Amino acid sequence: MQPFPATQKRLILVCTSQKNLEDPTLCGNCGGLELHAQLKEYVNQKGLGKTIRVVKSGCLDYCGKGPIVSIQPENEWYNRVTREDLKKIQEKWVDTIQH
Ligand code: FES
């Protein structure tokens, strides 16, 4: 195993867990999947798909507070993210990144 320099400058994790389709407290059942799709499309439209990786994550252990979005490596976390919130996340974490 060897460390290597990542090509991405930022990872954005969006919890999309649906380990139980009947459980509305899971992020994938309360909007996480839609947020992931919207954010990924936004990043790709900006031509930043290789710079910012938008990743579907499994459960991040904040069930009931979702959807959860985590920004790495800055380690900033957001809970109960709405479509309106996503615009703010895009402005802060996508629009400002250097290519
Ligand atoms: S399902 Fe998203 S934090 Fe658990």
UniProtKB/TrEMBL annotation:
InterPro entries: Thioredoxin-like_sf. This is (2Fe-2S) ferredoxin domain-containing protein. It comes from Candidatus Iainarchaeum sp.
